[in-house]
């Protein structure tokens, strides 16, 4: 029988079958020999009688932290106040999510807690990310409820940014635990302790402990460059085909930064990332 792993606690895997029945299974020992670990989100064939996972079907993508596979989209919860907005973190998440062939969706939270002057600055970012093609919501936008149907969705972002709070608003019956934000640290306590896919609004969403290891370890500098999506609009006009948009002459990306078409913070973050 075939189903999807929707929860893992220790060595127990909860598999949702096509008929919605939930079956708790163990993984066969052969997976250890193959150096494969079943992940939440995996499509698997199981031995229903003996409650074993027999086969893991090919994944379209996988993330390490959080450990989850076959994700369609990632909602990046982006706080603008305690924790404060970080364009560096947002751009890092966007690049890593794009690299993993997952659709990023940005949701800004806590705009009601900032003054008008700061909100104008945040609006500049919101408008820019929309301009370059990203879907952007604010947490008071009810239209966000329309994006989850038939999708596997991961929520990513800083601790304390409001991931669990938003999921609770999408489906109040979930009553996920939320945590207060430490003013000293500017971040919240991790309140989600395992990865679990939850049926919400016609799809599956994962409330995860977050990206605890946010690195570019598996990415080359060219991978980082190629996943700054607006760069790809202009890079054919660079003098060098493999231009890295640093000190090269006649670089169209640098020209577009000077023209204001590419946001300066995006370019500065790009330079920091490729110096990893």
- Helix and strand run: EEEHEEEEEHEHEEHEEEEHHHH
How big is the Rg?
20 Å
> What share of residues is helical?
25-40%
How many strands appear in the DSSP assignment? 15
* Strand content bin: 25-35%
Structure description:
It is a single chain. The chain is an alpha/beta fold and 276 residues long. The chain is built from eight helices and 15 strands. Strand 8 (73-79), helix 2 (87-99) and strand 9 form a beta-alpha-beta unit. The protein starts with a strand and ends with a helix.
Key traits:
276 residues; alpha/beta; OB fold (Dihydrolipoamide Acetyltransferase, E2P); Rossmann fold; Ribonucleotide Reductase Protein R1, domain 1; six-stranded mixed sheet; 8 helices; globular
What's the gist of this structure?
With 276 residues, the protein is α/β, with parallel strands linked by helices. It has eight helices and 15 strands.
């Amino acid at each position: 029988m075939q189903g999807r792993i929707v929860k893992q606690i220790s060595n127990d895997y909860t598999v949702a079958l096509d008929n919605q029945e939930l079956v708790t299974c163990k993984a066969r020992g052969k997976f250890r020999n193959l150096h494969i670990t079943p992940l939440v989100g995996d499509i698997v064939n199981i031995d229903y009688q003996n409650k074993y996972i027999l086969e893991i079907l090919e994944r379209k993508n996988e993330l390490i932290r959080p450990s989850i596979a076959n994700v369609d989209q990632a909602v990046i919860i982006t706080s603008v106040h305690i924790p404060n907005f970080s364009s560096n973190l947002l751009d890092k998440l966007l690049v890593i999510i794009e690299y993993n062939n997952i659709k990023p969706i940005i949701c800004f939270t806590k705009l009601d807690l900032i003054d008008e002057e700061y909100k104008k600055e945040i609006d500049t970012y919101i408008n820019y990310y929309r301009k370059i093609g990203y879907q952007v919501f604010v947490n008071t936008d009810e239209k966000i409820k329309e994006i989850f149907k038939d999708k596997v969705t991961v929520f990513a972002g800083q601790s304390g940014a409001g991931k669990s709070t938003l999921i609770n608003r999408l489906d109040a019956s979930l009553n996920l635990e939320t945590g207060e934000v430490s003013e000293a640290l500017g971040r919240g306590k991790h309140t989600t302790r395992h990865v679990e896919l939850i049926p919400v609004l016609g799809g599956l969403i994962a409330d995860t402990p977050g990206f605890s290891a946010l690195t570019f370890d598996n990415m080359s500098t060219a991978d980082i460059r190629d996943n700054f999506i607006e760069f790809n609009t202009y890079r054919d006009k660079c003098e060098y085909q493999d231009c890295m948009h640093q000190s090269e002459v006649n670089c169209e990306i640098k020209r577009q930064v000077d023209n204001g078409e590419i946001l300066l913070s995006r370019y500065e973050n790009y330079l920091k990332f490729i110096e990893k």
